[in-house]
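Example 3.2
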Amino acid sequence: MYIVNFEKNRTGNYFAKEAIVNRNPQQYKIADDEYDRQMIYFLIDVLLLNRNGKFPTLHQNPIASALEMWSIIGREILKDKD
């Protein structure tokens, strides 16, 4: 769904230089760049850096938002982090 290219700056920190998002409507129906930007940062924070993050949702309904979150990262949450 996402490919993110990182680059190291002069201080040795990495930053996201470019993000490529799958826009094939048969595979990924969302075409909102801002949502995708927020989702990429969320996934990096939660799955890679093990930090808390605010899930970007497209839904106002909390149940629909919870289902969206589970469909994207639910199984990862249940994995043992040790």
